[in-house]
Amino acid sequence: MKILIIVTHPHLSESVVNKNWIAALEKHPTRFTVHHLDAVYTDGKINVPAEQALVEQYDNIVFQFPFYWFNCPPLLKQWLDEVLLYGWAYGSSSGKKMQGKKIALAISLGAEEADYQRSGKFKYSLAELTRPFELTFAYVHADYKGIFAQFSAGPESDSQFNEESAKKYLSFLEQL
C-alpha cells in the first residue's frame, strides 16, 4: 500500500538527513508519495480542500520533519490546525476522514539520543515531547504508529551515517 510522506523542512536545502531520506523515498515512486509542504506553500497559504483530498487517498501517512524547539516547524503546525477540521477529521457523522488511517512521525534531531532522557540534557524523552501529536491523532481516531527518530543528525553527518539512516527509515515504513 502506498504511503503519503508529508515533508516540512524550512531549510531543506541545508539539510543532510532529510534530503537523504527524500532521495531514498523518491527511488520508490510506486510505494511513496512525497509531498513537500514548504515547496507547495511558499506563501504560507494552505489549500485546505486540496490537502484534505490528498489525505483521503491514503491509508498510511507519515509526517517527516526536523525537531525545532521541541516541536515541529511552524508550517506543519499550521497544516494540522487548518486541515484537521471539525466536520472533516472529527466531530460529526461526516468528520471521520482520518479514522483508522495509520499515522507516524519521522523526525530528525541534531542532539544525541542520551539528551532525550530524564537524566539527559532535555529531561524528557522524545515520546513525551511528541505527546501532543499522539493525542491529536487519537482525537481524530487515527491509528498512531509512533516515531522514527534519527538522532545526531546534522551537517557533519557522513555518507555512511546517512545511508544507514535512510535504510532504517525505509525499514520503519515497511512496518506500517
UniProtKB/TrEMBL annotation:
Protein name: General stress protein 14
GO molecular function: electron transfer activity; FMN binding; NAD(P)H dehydrogenase (quinone) activity
This protein's encoding gene: ywrO
Stored SUPFAM superfamilies: Flavoproteins (SSF52218)
Domain of life: Bacteria
UniProt EC number: 1.6.99.-, 1.-.-.-
UniProt xrefs under PANTHER family: GLUTATHIONE-REGULATED POTASSIUM-EFFLUX SYSTEM ANCILLARY PROTEIN KEFG
Enzyme class: oxidoreductase
